[in-house]
Design goal:
With 212 residues, this protein is mainly alpha-helical. It folds into two domains: 61 residues, Arc Repressor Mutant, subunit A, CATH 1.10.10.10; 143 residues, GntR ligand-binding domain-like (Four Helix Bundle (Hemerythrin (Met), subunit A)). The protein contains nine helices and two strands. Strands 1-2 form a two-stranded antiparallel ribbon. A hairpin with a 2-residue loop joins strand 1 and strand 2. It is elongated, with a radius of gyration of 19 Å.
């Protein structure tokens, strides 16, 4: 049962049903789910380990978002994405390339007005690059880290000309991986993620200025 409530609460947090700073009270959750407090306590412990909730002055609460958190997440992701791209250039298979090129074509035909579609295809592109590294530990770390970014539901891809830049950078990354150019693949991946970080920080600043 603890696995069930953990999954339900995790999905609710990622979907924005619980907002940053919202309290998560053991007794209230136990009553809501019709279970004892023990599985609720275990679920909250796991969510805290995931970084999705934190201890506040009045107990457990959904983790607050801040520019510092964005910087921390991207600082690590830049390193991991760079490592994944470099390793993909070394270990990729012909089938890997076919899958990546097919998805890139799907991205090129996607309308930037469809935020959900562009976000999903972009996420899938990165997941394929991760898989091309054929390094399970690296993939697991990236999947876990990406969970934190899901809590920022607003996509960076529809901001200004970001989508056009992403398509160009993805095409360049494919070419570098295909050529087995480890250094170029790493450079492109690093610059790509730094660009995403900068857009994300600007979006946060704009929202903060508007009082969101």
């Amino acid at each position: 049962m603890s696995l069930s409530i953990y999954g339900d609460l995790r999905e609710a947090i990622l979907a924005g049903q619980y907002r940053p700073g919202d309290q998560l009270v053991e007794t209230a959750l136990a009553s809501q789910f019709g279970i004892s407090r023990t599985p609720v306590r275990e679920a909250l412990r796991r969510l805290e380990q995931d970084g999705l909730i934190e201890r506040g002055t009045r107990g457990m609460q959904v983790s607050r978002r801040s520019p510092e958190q964005i910087l921390e997440i991207y600082e690590v992701r830049v390193v991991l994405e760079t490592a994944a791209a470099r390793t993909a250039a070394q270990r990729r298979t012909d089938l890997d390339l076919v899958r990546l090129e097919q998805l890139h074509e799907a991205m090129r035909s996607a309308s930037v007005d469809d935020e959900k579609l562009v976000a999903n295809t972009n996420r899938r592109f990165h997941e394929i690059v991760w898989a091309m590294s054929h390094n399970k530990t690296l993939v697991d770390m990236l999947v876990r880290l990406n969970t934190h970014l899901i809590r920022f539901p607003e996509t960076t891809l529809t901001r200004g000309d970001r989508w056009e830049k992403v398509l160009v950078e993805h095409e360049q990354l494919i070419a570098a991986i295909k050529a087995g150019d480890v250094d170029e693949a790493g450079r492109i991946a690093e610059e790509h993620m730094i660009g995403a970080r900068n857009v994300r920080l600007q979006m946060y600043a704009d929202q903060d200025a508007q009082g969101f």
